[in-house]
Amino acid sequence: MLGKLLKKDFSSTCRFFIPLLGGYTVAAVLGKILFEIVLSQSQVPYNSTFFDGITIFSIFYLIICIVYLIACYVMTSVFIVYDFYKTMVSDHGYLTHTLPVKTSTLIWSKTLMSAFWHILVNLIIGLSFLLLFVGHLKDVPVMDIFYSFVHAIDFKLNSYSFYTVVNGILELFNGPLMFFACIAIGQLWKNHRIMGAVLSYIGMYVLIQIISTIVLVITGNSSIFTGYMIYATLFSLITTVLFFLVTNYILSNKLNLE
Amino acid sequence: MAWQFDNERPIYTQLLEQIRFLIISGLYPAGSKLPSVRDLASEASVNPNTMQRALAELERSGLIYSQRTSGRFVTEDGVLIKQMKESIGKEKILTFLHEMEQLGYTAADSVVLVEKVVEEEIR
Amino acid sequence: MNTILEYSHVTKQFGSMHALYDVNFTIEPGHIIGLLGPNGSGKTTMIKLACGLLVPTSGSLTVCGEPVGPGSKARISYLPDKNYLSEWMKVSRIIDLFHDFYDNFDRNKSYEMLKRLNINPEQKLKTLSKGTREKVQLILVMSRNADLYLLDEPIGGVDPAARDYILQTILTNYNENGSILISTHLISDVEQVLDQIIFLKNGSISLQSSVDDIRENHQKSVDELFREVFQC
């Protein structure tokens, strides 16, 4: 059943992400072309007005690309929340909740889809940066950079970088689930449900910040970063599970679609 | 087209009468096979259980019989059908005479008027 | 044969308001039942409880002997009184979706019905008229070989010809192993298709009877009795 749900959610979220990411890819390719033009022009010091024009244009273009990049990140989260709201607690919920699946499976599907799209967005944006290096590998000491990078990270168990990765993965789940839990909590009221969701998000955010600060103060002193990291990761794990349980409980037992 | 029913009487009773009419008038000839309960119900736009009840009543009256695997059939007993036809015919005539009485015609007058109308119809 | 649906002392409260109070009844297989009552009497609440869209405040429901859950949802085919499908989807896509999730969905049947109504499956839902969309929703529901069909106001917003078609479809899909529950306030249109009715008044069952019994005992149709019972 999860597979079928993933397929369903994928095809409905595709409609948004394909244009978004497709547009970004096109923008990145155009940016690369522009980059190459600027680069080639800078080697040959003639036709300066054309060169100036291109440079100015490419600065504007860079700004646009950066805005688009930020928009990609933001819109991904916004759309995931919107999609959850639409399919789980508005009219489409009449279809979703009468499918022969458990509520927990529905939530899993949404969460996994969110993780997938976030990973994809990061990948595409990352690749767009690497794109700039294509054709110039001989100019850049890639292997040296790579080795010093690996050495700096010092990827071992129980190291800072290890926890960063673990936290990164956890965040893929914690992020959407926090939104989902807030939407679910918002459903407990008859009216102003969106307001309820927003308020509970603010409330939860504040609460988490307070608890995190307390944890930091308590554990921050013991050893340097890694001590704190263990607790931060643990805290993140606990809240992720909590958000899932809250969402599942409310949508299974307190569902009241309009 | 859905069969029409009036409101004060149970639907199965009216179905019964309607099917009986179809049998007597020869639309469902003696010995012929009736459509299935579902088909009849669908044609009449009524609930199949209601149609089933009507058919059960008709079976009890002897007008139709059922054969286990092949379905329901109109009786081959021509005499029975004729008897039913006559008794219904009589009912209708009695109703007619009653209504004519209310208009002021005696039974004898009514008969005369009937003959006159029939003559005019032939011409 | 198992009882298809059973309500046992079911109460549903929303805050301090009782939508349903101590509702007890069963649906046996092979019937077409009318759930009748004025707006706000609790009809939709009753149906949503059976579908698992609501959870009772107290009491219990069972569907074919099981509690409400994914198993019961597979056995129930529900037609809500609203647009619950994504508008951007093509009809064929939605059929694929139903085919994916419901083992008892008959794809061929749905295409047949669409063809008979001259509905192009490659059209997107948002391009269809209201009446056509409702017919599509009905086709999807009736193409399932379910144990229980729950139809919430299936003939409400449609023209008389469409109503006839819908009632015909309901009759054609009737089978002795399943039952159909129709919630409506358009009683006279539906009465001859029903064999049992339930009157719901202010969240409680005020009458449960067969259609024929009502006519025999009260010498009036269900529609007329309803008007009497629920006089404003």
Task: Characterize the structure shown.
The complex is a heterotrimer of chains A (258), B (123) and C (232). Chain A has helices at residues 2-43, 48-89, 93-96, 103-133, 142-153, 160-186, 193-220, 225-253. In chain A, 83% of the residues lie in helices and 0% in strands. Chain A contains eight helices and no strands. Chain A folds into two domains: 1-140, no CATH class; 141-253, no CATH class. In chain A, α1 (2-43) runs parallel beside α4. Chain B has 123 residues and is mainly alpha-helical. Chain B folds into two domains: 11-76, Winged helix-like DNA-binding domain superfamily/Winged helix DNA-binding domain (Arc Repressor Mutant, subunit A), CATH 1.10.10.10; 79-122. In chain B, 63% of the residues lie in helices and 7% in strands. Chain B has helices at 11-24, 37-44, 48-61, 78-103, 107-122; strands at residues 64-67, 71-74. A two-stranded antiparallel sheet of chain B has the order 1-2. The longest helix of chain B is centred in the last third of the chain and has 26 residues, at 78-103. Chain C has one domain: Rossmann fold. Chain C has nine helices and ten strands. In chain C, the strands form two sheets. Chain C has a six-stranded mixed beta sheet with strand order 6-7-8-3-9-10, with helices on both faces. The longest helix of chain C has 14 residues, at 160-173. The termini of chain C are far apart. Chains in contact: A-C, B-C. Chain A binds chain C through residues 1, 4, 7-8, 12, 15, 91-95, 97-102, 190, 252-257, and chain C through 14-15, 48, 51-55, 69-71, 73-74, 76, 78, 80, 82-86, 88, 97, 100-102.
N- to C-terminal separation of chain C?
41 Å
Low-confidence stretches of chain C: none
Low-confidence stretches of chain B: none
SSE succession of chain B: HHHEEHH
Nearest-integer average pLDDT of chain B: 89
Succession of helices and strands of chain C: EEEHEEHEHHHEHEHEEHH
Shape of chain B: elongated
Number of DSSP helices of chain B? 5
CATH domain fold name of chain C: Rossmann fold
Rounded to the nearest angstrom, the radius of gyration of chain C is: 18 Å
CATH superfamily of chain C: P-loop containing nucleotide triphosphate hydrolases
- Principal-axis shape of chain C equals globular
**Radius of gyration of chain B, Cα only, in angstroms?**
18 Å
Structural class of chain B: mainly alpha
CATH architecture of the largest domain in chain B: Orthogonal Bundle
